[in-house]
Amino acid sequence: MPPYQPSADWQFEIPTSGSKRLPPAARNVESLTHQGYGFEAAFVDLVDNSVDNGMRN
Question: Do residues 32 and 42 touch, judged by C-beta distance below 8 A?
Fold first, then answer.
């Protein structure tokens, strides 16, 4: 199977500078909990994402 090659149709310019402050989503944590995404899973996901991005401490 050949490696995945993204189509040129799906490539977009995405701005990578600056930031925007977003308001907190109302009842966000509660809604995730109702979907089975509890504190433990969120913590493991945070650690996993940090390691994937090169964080070591």
Answer: yes
> Which parts of the chain sit beneath pLDDT 50?
none
Distance in angstroms (rounded) separating the CA atoms of residues 53 and 48: 9
At residue 14, the pLDDT reads 72
Distance between CA atoms of 7 and 27, rounded to whole angstroms? 38
Question: What's the rounded Cα separation, in Å, for the pair 40 and 57?
Answer: 19
Find the DSSP H helices in 1-57.
28-34, 39-52
Q: What is the DSSP letter of 29?
A: H
Q: Taking a C-beta distance cutoff of 8 angstroms, is the pair 40, 50 a contact?
A: no
